[in-house]
Design a protein that fits this description.
By secondary structure, the chain is of the alpha+beta class. Helix content is 24%, strand content 28%. It has 14 helices and 28 strands. The strands form 5 sheets. Strands 1, 2, 3, 4, 5, 6, 7, 10, 11, 12 and 13 form an 11-stranded mixed beta sheet that branches. The protein has a 5-stranded mixed beta sheet with strand order 14-15-18-16-17.
Amino acid sequence: MRKWAWEEFDPSRTSTSGDISKLFRNEPVKEPGVFVLNAPPSNATVMAREVIQNSWDAALEAQAHSTGPPLDFGLLFDFKTASGPDRANLITALALHQLAQRVHDYETQADEYRRRDLGLADHLCLDELDSPSYSLPHLVISETGTTGMYGSWESGESRMYLALATLGWTPKREGGGSYGYGKAGLIRGSATRTVIAYTCFPERSDEPGVTRRLFGMTYWGDHKMERGRYTGFARFGDETGDGNIVPFQNEKADEVAASLDLLRRSPERRDERGPGTTFLLVEPLVEAEDLQRAVERYWWPALEDPSIEFSVTISQPNRQVLHPRPRRDPVLRSFIEAYETATVSQDNTHSYKRAHRLHAISGFSSPGTLGLVVNPDDWSYPHQTQTEAPTPTDHRSLVALMRKPRMVVEYWDAGRTMPFVRGAFVADDSIDDALRDTEPKSHDAWQTKADDDSDASTTAINYEAARTLLNRIKRHVNKFRDDLKPPPRPQEQVRLPEFDRIMAKIMRGAGPGKPGPAPEPRPVTIHLTPMAEPVDNKQVRVTGQAEFALSDNFDGDHSNALIRLRYLFDEDGRSGDRALLGINAPEGFDATEDPGTFIGMLHRDSPATFEFSSNPHLALWAGTVFAEADLLPSDSLANE
């Protein structure tokens, strides 16, 4: 008879509680800016990130060592319900009555004992095992194109042992993270906190003849029973003569897999029945649609990259199949555009896209490539372009950070001032290992300094590389933003119109009931003809002419003059920041150190014509051209 064997607390050995998901419980999933909208539940996010990452790491290893045709990676999340005879067979095959009895025995010991102490919910499918009308929900996750969990069980080198029966043990040489923490996505996805794994791998010299194993674990909280104290770990496997529990192997593994309605695997095949691992979770806590959104949110780089053979499929009990389609999401579509800007050679430059290959960082010759995009008609200026009531979103510039596995490590906050920029940074292989070593156990950041959970083997140079890298990314984002908007307004140019009006009256000696002096006749006539011309469908430039001549109010035929041309953007109905003007001055006028200012000789009968053209700027920004002239003493040109 199959059974679950509970691990007893042994004071002579180092031990831990089986409820290892506590390590992730207080680490909320990051949802910066727009990602707070329609965010998938944390269980779905952790499953999508951790489970897929572990399988994809195994696929990358298989591809690196494959001598045959390229292997296509695939992962199927098959949500099922078992009813009638299938339900009864599954309950027996998994010995679920033993788990139900364990919960009952624990809770009936004393009033203060509750199943929540075990990390379990108040109501479980284990409470419904004797109800014939109850359908048993379960989730089957199966890989294609991976290595399987190979390695000798007895030596502790088994990938299955490292993945299921250890915590944070043995970091992977490459890929996403460590073997031990990947199980968090499986545990948090099962209400019963049970994981069954059936794996297949090619025969290896360290274990001749072994190609398949099946093994199960519970991850409950440590607890006391009448017979003693237990860690919360229980093993589901083959009992040896000395009472140990080891995985079912080869034909025995196939037999148990068949009783669980799992497809038989063989090392000779290259499809879904070949090398790889199949997981079974009883009573999944994740919904298919939520998982689909989480996969789209974090795995769109691998899904959308045509050079990567990567697919994820989600099947529901009604046999409806869901395929993640990240391009359907307008937010993700902008990050995909940034990714393509970074990774695909662009035919021509575009004012709303930029690609940067970052220069070498100390110790790393090629850090990676950054793609940046903006959308002035939408999310770059959300408060100006939204036609409906604005959503309560904390908008910000975000950059999707990723390494070789092509999972989004983090949507990194790169600024909270308009115009907002979105980007994608793709790390090169040369810095991949260093960045991976700075990631916390949840793989959701590149840390710039060590914390309490950091691996002591991570060297200071890796944290410094991450810090330098993020600073450079932010510098490029800020430069892009600055090129899209007028420069910051200098403090000394800030004007208070009402204050200026009052002070002008005081200086003129004008008060209530006493009008100021009439303005003097203008000695110079100015004829200004500005016009806006489109540069592309988003940008315009202002061009035109300004003519200056002596008026009839001036007593003389010529005079030295100071000419000033400025183009100021409009801000809330008044003049704001200055935009650069390119100015062609007529003969006889020399430029001064003050931009847009010239000194020369004005004549009565021959106007001085200045031609001007502004730099291209967003059509959203309106502005005004100002032309001014001040007559100077006759010796001013000589003094200049």
